[in-house]
Amino acid sequence: MKKIIITLMLITSTLSAFSQKKLIKKLFSSDTTRHNSFLPVPLFGYSQEAGFEFGAVGIYSFYIDKADTIIRASQVYGVAYTSTKGVTQISARGDIWSKKNKWHHIYEARFSNTPFNFYGLGNQTLRADEDLITQKRYRFNTEIERQLTKSYYPGLGVEFESLNFKDREAGGIFDTESQAPLFDKDGGRFLLLKLTQLLDTRNSNTYTTKGFYTRLRYGYAPNLFGGNNFTGNLFTADARYFYTPTKKLTIGSQLFYETISSKNEIPFYLLRQLGNDQIMRGYYLGRYRDRNYLALQAELRLRLIDRLGLVAFGGTGSTYGKDANVTQNLKPNYGIGTRIFFDLDKSLALRLDYGWGEKPTGEKRISGLYISLGESF
Question: Which of 12, 171, 368, 372 is the most buried (most CB within 10 A)?
């Protein structure tokens, strides 16, 4: 692919920001007491479309009540960067657990102005059709869930997005629509009203070694904005299971499914996209797009020592239309990675993964590097 993104999280630079020697000593200690932690990390990256990227990413992890022995760790993530070619992203996300885990809150706000590669629609797009598009995006999301039983949390949510697109390469597939007609190419807005259902028996929400997790989301977008803006339904199912056969080895699995439907045409930007840094790693996000998305993955996590872990993962997935046979178009996914744990109490880690995918006819094998905070699932 033309776009190559390499993000280097410079831990050594981060450590220099801690001016007090005892804080550096604590970062590498074997301390597992319940405490709040903050890790700011300089971010440096490069892509052919965006040029050099520079900024910061950080994670603040804390307990609402440290005296509560069953409360789960809450996290707030923040990312801000710009680039030599004018790409900008500012985002924040909160995952908050109240006392006794009675309430679960998710908040997200994001602004981005960034290019991406568009390949067309469907499950058989070609690298030769790659077309550079600029996307400007505003996203706001809130979900609030209330515990009814020990593991069951029903809830409500609201999501709003506003997107705008501009073709930066005239005559490409986005401009000529040579593969398939694209609906609402300039962008649009939608408001999604959501019902959520969470069943969660995990022993930890930051580094799970046993238990299962199932989240169902149904969203309805009413006709609030008129025109070509999306009106319809979005359903997501995310099921995970974790098992620890030995003290240092954990096996995790995940089944992910999304589908979008409407009585009207569906804007191209709301079609489901295969690939990211969490599932189907190695695939460029948006290389394949369609109404439905199904993926399955498993991961072996070996905790060599307190501060270091290794992983191996594999899976399969596909995007597909209403009448397609999903089993005929499944794509492979496999890779390896490492984890550097900087907070032993919550098992928070810096994650480095390299994933491989299929080898399309006449193209190099699809692959990608990912460096981020926290586990993939």
Answer: 368
